[in-house]
Specification:
2 domains; Rossmann fold
Length: about 250
């Protein structure tokens, strides 16, 4: 369906790598122009090479000022933003929640929860302007069930799931839909970071094997499989869908 997003404008945070980049590239293939936002200037430039007609801004996803600047620049250079994908996120430390330092907890929630909220606050006024919009947040299967390995991350993603549902109710009457994807273990930078938390060498391999053994489909997901689900939620085909949290995890939480 190469023309679903032709002539339409999106904004993506966390666009420099991982699932943010995969989503941006797939949207570009279907004709969208985008505001690509990330703090990683080099990674952002690489993503932009595959997104003709898009613009970039280096900024902090936890900064209200940076996101307001991104919204204003998008409005001026591209037009009102119809689609928003706040993809910026981090794993945080691998330890029980009560063992985190306060600064670690605050940073995790600032990026994973405050960031999507700030992005929604910055871009929803433009969706109101055009009378429609669609937002896809990034939760996780760890936002649907608890995690002893990444307990604070799980708590932050649980907050994203509920933020999705609350925003969906806030804006349903305005024809602005809000859904979230809940990826399981996906090949890419975040899964590699998760395995690295277990240690080095054999410890990482053992961690990866344990994770794979818990997946009924016996494999990890691919970034494009997540991006395809994001594009479905953004598209007109999901026009009667809002407040949904979709597990994409090979059956792990089935």
């Amino acid at each position: 369906m190469p023309d679903r997003f032709t002539g339409r404008i999106a904004a993506i945070t966390g666009a420099a790598s991982g699932l943010g980049r995969a989503t941006a590239l797939m949207l570009a293939q279907e004709g969208a122009r985008m505001m690509l936002f990330d703090r990683d200037a080099a990674g952002l430039a690489i993503t932009a090479e595959g997104c003709p007609g898009s613009i970039t801004l280096v900024g902090d996803a936890t900064s209200a000022a940076d996101l307001e600047r991104a919204a204003a620049l998008a409005r001026t250079e591209l037009g009102p933003v119809e689609f928003l994908v706040p993809a910026a996120g981090v794993l945080g430390p691998a330890k029980p929640a009560i063992e985190l330092e306060e600064e670690e907890w605050d940073r995790l929630f600032a990026i994973n929860v405050k960031g999507p909220w700030l992005a929604a606050r910055a871009f929803i006024p433009q969706m109101r302007e055009i009378g429609q919009g669609s937002i896809v947040l990034f939760s996780s299967t760890a936002g649907l069930v608890g995690s002893p390995f990444l307990s604070a991350y799980s708590a932050s993603k649980g907050a994203v799931t509920m933020l999705t549902r609350s925003l969906a109710l806030n804006h349903a009457a305005e024809n602005i839909r809000v859904n979230c994807v809940c990826p399981g273990t996906i090949n890419g930078p975040m899964s590699q970071a998760s395995f690295a938390l277990a240690g080095e060498g054999e410890a990482q391999l053992a961690r990866a094997a344990v994770m794979k053994s818990r997946i009924p489909m016996n494999r990890f997901g691919e970034p494009d499989e997540i991006a395809a689900a994001v594009l479905y939620f953004l598209s007109d085909a999901a026009g009667f869908t809002t407040g949904a949290a979709l597990p994409i995890d090979g059956g792990r939480v089935a």
